[in-house]
Amino acid sequence: MTIEEKVKLILLSIFNVLFIGIFSYVFIDALIHPSQVFAIMNPWIVLLLSLIVLVILYGVYHTLSQLSKKSLIIFSCFNFLVLIGLQIFFLRYFQVEPAWDVGGVYHSALSVKDGFTVFPEYFTDKYPNNIPLFLVELLGMKLLSLLHIENYYYVFTFANALVMTLTMGCFYWFIKRRLGLVAATWGSFFMLFITPLYTYTTIFYTDTTVMIFMIFGVLLYDLFYHSKDRSHYTWLLLMSVVLAIGVLLKANVIILLVAILIHFVMTNSYKSWLGFFTGSLLPFFMLTILYQQWITPYYPVEKAEIGYPMTHWIMMGSEGRGTYSATDDEFTNDLKLNQELSNEQIKEVHLEIIKDRLTKNGFSGLMNHLKEKINFTWAEGTYFAPEKLSRLPVSENVYQPYIWGDAKVYLVYFCQAVQLVILGLIVVGGIKLFQQKSAFEIVLSIAIFGTFLFLLIWETRSRYLIVALPLIMALCVYGMASNEKLLN
To answer: What is the pLDDT of residue 228?
Structure first.
């Protein structure tokens, strides 16, 4: 073993220890302090339910390991049919009028459907990050109009459900490649416990529509990484394009690209770096530059003054639970529109506020803030679905109380138990990766850890984990499959 390889092995070991330690803390904190966002929960009941869920999941995995290939395929198909059935149920009974940012994008697209010349104020004044989704919806509306279809949002939610199902198809493909048919079949059963995969079908937004870019990006990287013929660079170029589109739709996807770059550097000799960096980054930057050149003429003001500066979201994430703050939003809006400060000046104001908050709270205050933020983000098992589904429901029905009404406590307890199992399996997966430092799946833990760090700094809530859910689920499957191997 060369000195370079030894150093990389040590660095990977340090990372794995850090990953296991942090997510062990997250698991223990969620166990002791289950989220109280939607219901006051008894930790002992959550623990009991999570043990029941874990026994069911492990029992199913053990049973699947004894079935034939044909039976596994049949069971997998059945699980996907159940998922589609659940999605149809929520599409039927939980349609909502587009509100919050979903409504901002949708109504902006609707307002310029017949004559788009410049981006609406919603993007230029506040949120330019949603411009790609706006363009997708605008194009969708024009195509649907040609087909004489006027209920645009309902079609968008149907497309949303379809994308989420395809996301799980990519997830299944990835797990089958890496861990085999038994693990993939178990993964298809496990996904039925992940409620955002169907509760969010009627919320057409980047949280769900971008999930597919995360798992498809990892899948393409896997195909490149383990391909031995000359065509493997085709997979790399396709991965670069997929991740570029994903980053345009939701900047968080850049975390996966960084994780892939780190993984490749840490597992390959420097002699192969040039070809990899060229193939992965050149198409990425070319596509990004072309996109910027295309949309810049539609900016009504100078590009540097478009939207809030990024410090706005860091400021919102610097206090309390680090979630959305209407007060902070109104403050930035006043600086930009009423006081007419430039974005550079607004950044300076934001940085002073962040500095004051950190100074005022001190080290212990900062630790309490981060503890609150971690719990609010990672220990909430519904991923904020009851709140989003309760906003402007299209109609009333007998099922709504069990999702966001007076009887939602049952759903909340179930989701909390599942979330505890997810966190536990993440830790188990991390332990297995510590034992097998060269395992490809470490790219998953790097990406998940990057998401953890990002949401420590940025505005946060549990909903922001949805985009990374396929990666989290994949590491959970690795944890379950590895646990079975360890027991044998």
So the answer is: 80
